Amino acid sequence: MKQAIYQQFTSFKQQGRKSFAVLIDPDKADNKQIDQLVQLGQEAKVDYFFVGGSLVISDTLDASIQQIKACCDIPVVLFPGSPSQVSKYADALLYLSLISGRNPELLIGQHVLSAPTVKRSGLEIISTGYMVVDGGAPTTVSYISNAAPLPSDKADIATCTAMAGEMLGMKLIYMDAGSGAKQPISTEMIEKVSSNISIPLIVGGGITAPEKAYMNCKAGADVIVVGNAIEKDVQLIKEISAAVHANANIKV
After folding, report:
1. pTM of this prediction?
2. Quick one: which H or E segment has residue 164?
3. Are strands 172-176 and 124-132 parallel, antiparallel or unpaired?
């Protein structure tokens, strides 16, 4: 089984190197916008393109990924919102289990249904403990999952959830405040979670400024994911990428 992307995640963590992923939702980005994102991503030395969305109602997933791959060598990682969001053209797939919720369908049920398709895809599969944190506004993820997010001020609950995910065999922990969050995940929560797990920590949702990205990395995030803010201002790619990469070798 391929492990190139996961080995990169863990190698970067061991080196103290922080990574920046630009999230592209195929429902929101047309061909022209994707070309612009890829060009800016190359110039800014973006580490990954995450592709996916809570719905993805358009039939452009494969085409979007192929367009990205045709223009650059930046790895494309699927961040699926449903079992249908699988494309053989990507480099890896985050196999998300919603460990912050109590909906069995998104803990294991949908995975059972999607397993044959995912297996046949030939993708590198990275088991990921997905934790939705309250960002101060209702999110599509919470609505679709029928699961309440973790309280934003309960770092202990988030920490124990992440620890449980790691001990259950998850290879990554992904904390997400959701697209368009009014408040991003606190640095206090990130620091507490990061200091209690040994696997890479991905953080996204509500990150709208390079200063916030920098502080999240300093608190212990290994990968910063930004999507919604870049949809509104693509030039943020360069600023946030610079802030993330300025955190090299920072130790909490």
Report:
1. 0.95
2. helix 155-167
3. parallel
